[in-house]
Design goal:
The chain is of the alpha+beta class. About 20% of the residues lie in helices and about 40% in strands. The chain has 8 helices and 27 strands. The strands form 4 sheets. Strands 1, 2, 3, 4, 5, 19, 20, 21, 22, 23, 24, 25, 26 and 27 form a 14-stranded antiparallel sheet that branches. It is globular. The chain starts with a helix and ends in a 6-residue tail after the last helix.
């Protein structure tokens, strides 16, 4: 099976490589629209995608489905982000084009990047690939291009996501997490003693035990696990008046087994049929759009050895006039909504002109938000504060020691908005703030080192200089330069 997958992957890469080569030998014509290319196209409605709910409610499925099908992409050619448009915690998944694993590494001192003379034949193989495609011999072109794939021992690596820019609004979510176990559960042990059961928040019927793996797979002091037929737990909670609730049930991250979940008590007007759990990365099940009232959820073991780590209840004020949008004409993304009498707006773009991603956040009344920059790449580096208004995520990839540097800086709109950086986060309180993010690596497309030779300090200074320059210009000036730069290309054509 593994060899079959490898052969299919190799064939797919060969086809992609071959098509790329074909394009390189063919012309591409773009029809340009007459007029001033620095101004947006006129005479037609703005081309805009818009939605009336956040990404996580737009499509069903897992995290990959939401990211791929529902988020709003912005990008500059170097930096990019996908905007989720969530209510209580906005998420931007961040990318930078040169962050890759593979290639030269301390563990691969003889890496040559596939540069074998007997494979490339000094460009002769490329010419044969192009000629076969141009003559209509698709199968021959793919086969010929396959000789260029995998040459030199592989280790080409993978593109790596950078991290996330998360913006949590304190006034928009009341979150309570309740652990199923309690106390100092001995490590690597199963405890049937209900001293370790959180019986003040749960009932457990049957043969349950608290199991502390001591391996970081559960957040609570232990996971509550069972393998008894028809064993069950119950948990009662309340969604306050004027809010909408979401209940998440979590197991440990390696959880298996199945519970059947049902609400044995719920307010009139809420309907939910019994469902079976399907553990995914520690999440057993999530129930959203819970109306105000008191609920009791019951989880009955159906098969295997299911476990419960904790439950998380998030209650948010009712939201009205929600809209998230992506303007194709202007390369801008935005989110707008109202909650508890406060109007919130967010605007995002990736500026090629200033090499930053900018986020302008406003509220019609003073609000408090927490900004974090969690990593998604494989590295030992962590996010720390830099000064009193900036977060820093710098280090090197574990696989190939590629250096990377990134910063996010918060600039208040006025003197009534405060910004404080502490630990691994920035706290903003007020009515308006702009966040500037930029990132870079020491990658350089030059064989054989593929590195710029910059020190950590030099690379960090290069990125921070872009942030400081954008902040000094101000949001409106950065936005204006972004629009001018984008329109100079986009307005060369129009759709009709």
């Amino acid at each position: 099976m593994k060899e079959t997958v490898k052969r299919r992957a190799r064939k797919g890469i060969a086809l992609l490589l071959a098509l790329t080569m074909l394009v390189s030998c063919m012309g591409l014509t773009v029809l340009a629209a007459p007029g001033d290319e620095s101004q947006p196209t006129t005479g037609q409605p703005e081309l805009k995608l818009w939605y009336d709910e956040p990404s996580t409610k737009t499509v069903s499925g897992g995290e990959d489905d939401v990211w791929e099908k529902a988020t709003l992409p912005i990008g500059s050619g170097d930096l990019a982000a996908n905007v989720y448009g969530e209510i209580a915690t906005e998420r931007l998944v961040l990318n930078e084009k040169t962050l890759w694993t593979g290639g030269p590494s301390e563990s691969r001192p003889n890496y040559i990047g596939g540069n074998l003379e007997n494979q490339g034949e000094y460009g002769e193989r490329l010419k044969r690939v192009q000629q076969k495609f141009l003559s209509g011999d698709t199968a021959g072109g793919v086969s010929e291009a396959g000789g260029l794939v995998g040459a030199g021992g592989g280790n080409y690596g993978y593109y790596s996501p950078w991290g996330e820019l998360n913006i949590a609004y304190d006034s928009l979510a009341q979150t309570t997490e309740t652990f199923a176990a309690k106390g100092n559960v001995p490590a690597n042990s199963e405890q049937a003693n209900n001293t370790y059961f959180n019986t003040s928040a749960f009932t457990f019927s049957g043969s349950w035990y608290a199991y502390n793996d001591n391996d970081g797979t559960h957040r609570g002091p232990a996971k509550m696990e069972t393998n008894g037929d028809n064993d069950y737990f119950t948990h009662t909670f309340t969604v306050p008046t004027g809010t909408v609730g979401t209940l998440e049930l979590h197991c440990d991250t390696s959880g298996s087994g199945v519970f059947t979940l049902e609400f044995t008590q719920k307010p009139s007007g809420y309907t939910q049929a019994a469902v079976d759990t399907a553990a995914s990365s520690g999440l057993l099940k999530s129930f959203s759009n819970l109306i105000p009232g008191t609920y009791t959820i019951k989880g009955t073991r159906k098969s295997g050895r299911p476990n419960l780590d904790y439950v998380k209840l998030t209650c948010m004020p009712e939201v009205t006039n929600y809209s998230r949008w992506l303007s194709l004409d202007n390369a801008l993304a935005g989110v707008e909504f109202a909650a508890d009498g406060v109007k919130y707006t967010r605007e995002f773009f990736a500026s090629h002109a200033d090499s930053v991603i900018a986020a302008h956040l406003t509220a019609s009344q003073s609000a408090t938000m927490t900004v974090t920059l969690p990593k998604k790449m494989n590295t030992s580096a962590t996010t720390v504060v830099e000064g009193n208004d900036t977060l820093k995520l710098c280090g090197e990839l574990t696989d190939n020691q590629e250096k990377f540097a990134s910063f996010v800086k918060a600039v208040p709109d006025d003197a009534n908005t405060t910004v404080t950086a502490t630990g691994d986060h920035i706290t903003v309180t007020g009515t308006g703030v702009t966040l500037y993010f930029s990132a870079a690596t020491d990658y350089k497309a030059v064989f054989p080192t593929y590195r710029t030779g910059e020190t950590d300090a030099t690379l960090a200074a290069r990125v921070m200089a872009k942030i400081n320059a954008a902040a000094a210009k101000g949001y409106e000036a950065v936005k204006e330069d972004h629009l001018t730069d984008y329109h100079s290309l986009y307005n060369r054509m129009e759709l009709n």
